[in-house]
């Protein structure tokens, strides 16, 4: 084996050559990551994901394929890093043009349907993320914001904080999992039947909110405290 084979690849390489090539590639990845700095690890925007996936795939191929060029692999790693640094700089200067930005999807307990569509989140995804935040009633939410990372942060209204009852020494209410009654203008009959209610009961709750047609409702949900939450 010659040094040319080591750097540019050959049909066969000894085990020690594979090991050294792997060390060089891994060291290059570490150095490139240091150049990209903490923001790439903590924020992980769209282009960060692409660069991470590309670099990992590239390094894996170079580590196991003896015919691949180590020089080309190292060069591509640093080119990837340079492109990512440039995109990150542009993202800082023009955040709304290069990558995603924080988006409010619930404000004062009301779902903002346009923003929900913009961030490509379904109502089931939203409700599951809220449950992970220990939020089971949409009426408790003052703001819900989808961050650039894709995570959802929630600010609850002060009167809805469950800790208040504990601090006052009051017994907790019996709670159940909130259930969707209407979604996108369509009554969820199975859920209604499971709860032991009928369409007449639902119509009465809708009229109490001053809404005439079911088709006008985006989401209606029976919440843990027995309140019917409605968002048009």
TrEMBL record:
The UniProt entry lists the main location of this chain as: membrane
Keyword NAD in annotation:
no
Cellular component aspect of the GO annotation: plasma membrane
Specify the YetF C-terminal domain's residue ranges. Answer: 94-222
Q: Which UniProt keywords apply?
A: Cell membrane, Membrane, Transmembrane, Transmembrane helix
Q: How does it sit in the membrane?
A: Multi-pass membrane protein
**Can the keyword Transcription be found in this entry's annotation?**
no
* Transmembrane domains' residue ranges: 15-35, 47-64, 70-90
**Location of the protein in the cell:** Cell membrane
Gene3D superfamilies per UniProt: bsu07140 like domains
- Protein family according to the UniProt entry: Belongs to the UPF0702 family.
Q: What is this protein called?
A: Uncharacterized membrane protein YcaP, DUF421 family
What is the originating organism of this protein? Geosporobacter subterraneus DSM 17957
């Amino acid at each position: 084996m010659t040094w040319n084979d080591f750097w540019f690849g050959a049909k066969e390489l000894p085990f020690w050559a594979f090991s050294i090539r792997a060390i060089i590639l891994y060291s290059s990845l570490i150095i490139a990551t240091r150049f990209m700095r903490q923001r790439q690890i903590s924020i992980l925007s769209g282009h960060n994901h692409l660069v991470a996936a590309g670099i990992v795939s590239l390094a894996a191929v170079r580590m196991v394929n003896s015919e691949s060029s180590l020089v080309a692999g190292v060069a591509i790693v640093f080119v990837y890093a340079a492109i990512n640094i440039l995109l990150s700089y542009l993202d800082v200067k023009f955040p709304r043009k290069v990558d995603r930005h924080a988006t409010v999807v619930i404000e004062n307990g009301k779902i903002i349907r346009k923003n929900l569509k913009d961030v490509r989140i379904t109502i089931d995804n939203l409700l599951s993320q809220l449950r992970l935040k220990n939020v089971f009633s949409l009426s408790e939410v003052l703001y819900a914001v989808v961050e650039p990372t894709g995570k959802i942060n929630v600010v609850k209204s002060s009167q809805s904080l469950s800790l208040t009852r504990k601090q006052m020494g009051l017994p907790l209410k019996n709670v159940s999992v909130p259930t969707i009654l209407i979604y996108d203008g369509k009554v969820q009959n199975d859920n209604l039947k499971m709860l032991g209610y009928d369409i007449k009961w639902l119509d009465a709750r809708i009229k109490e909110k001053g809404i005439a047609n079911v088709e006008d409702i985006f989401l209606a949900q029976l919440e843990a405290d027995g309140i019917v939450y409605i968002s048009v």
